[in-house]
Amino acid sequence: MELSSLNNVRWWHRNIARKGFSINGAINAYPDLMAKTESGKLLLIETKGDQLENSESKEKAETGAKWAEMAGRMYKYYMVFETKNPGYNGAYSYEEFMRIVKEL
Predict the structure, then answer these.
(1) What is the pLDDT of residue 76?
(2) Are 64 and 46 in contact (CB under 8 A)?
(3) 3-state secondary structure the chain
(4) What is the pLDDT of residue 4?
(5) Distance CA 32, CA 88 (A)
(6) What averages of pLDDT result for each successive group of 10 residues across the chain (104 residues)?
């Protein structure tokens, strides 16, 4: 709900896992949400409970971060954990993620 209430978020959409959009890699990543900012950036967001921080999450986050890098500056990927930041590319705590999105 907090994401949709931000002034700079134009729209958001729930992506249905294993039926909707995916980032293909060694492990496919199915972002939970897609959002578009007023500045035109497309955000792919995969949410995770803190207990789901593991090697598969790390691989998905790194795949998503690489996808965003290759897709260009208008595309962003975020794996968002409830409270912790596991410290690998593409992964953020909820608090960090919201701070970043507010500035996009």
Answers:
(1) 96
(2) yes
(3) CCCCCCCCEEEEEECCCCCCCCECCCCCECCCEEEEECCCCEEEEEEECHHHCCHHHHHHHHHHHHHHHHHCCCEEEEEEECCCCCCCCCEEEHHHHHHHHHCC
(4) 86
(5) 19
(6) 90 85 83 94 93 86 93 96 90 94 91
